[in-house]
Design goal:
It is a single chain. With 115 residues, the chain is mainly beta. Helix content is 10%, strand content 52%. A six-stranded antiparallel sheet has the order 1-7-8-9-2-3, covered by helices on one side.
Amino acid sequence: MQLIDPVLIQRRLNELQDQDLYIHLEMTTGAYASHMDSSKHPSATFISNARLRYTTGSISEKAPFFRVGLKTETGWVYSEGLTHYEDTEQERLILAGHDAQGKLVVALQLSKEPF
């Protein structure tokens, strides 16, 4: 994975706009973290292969993190804390946010095909 290039990601968001897509979105602050440390608050979000069509997609930066917002006909989907993207993917947009230890914290993926 590479550090996010906001110009490249905005271009990819524009290319996928107004198309029927599948979304994978997940976030965890350590759903299993409380097994090792009971003071940790376990939380997680996961959605995979939900259908999505957005009319506007945008990326914004609050250094060193990025936020991607997707405006749909009836609301918004957004993901914050993104740091990296997969540069080998041509058919899918794969974004991730990693913490200081390199662990995955958030992932946002868009594709014309199911994951």
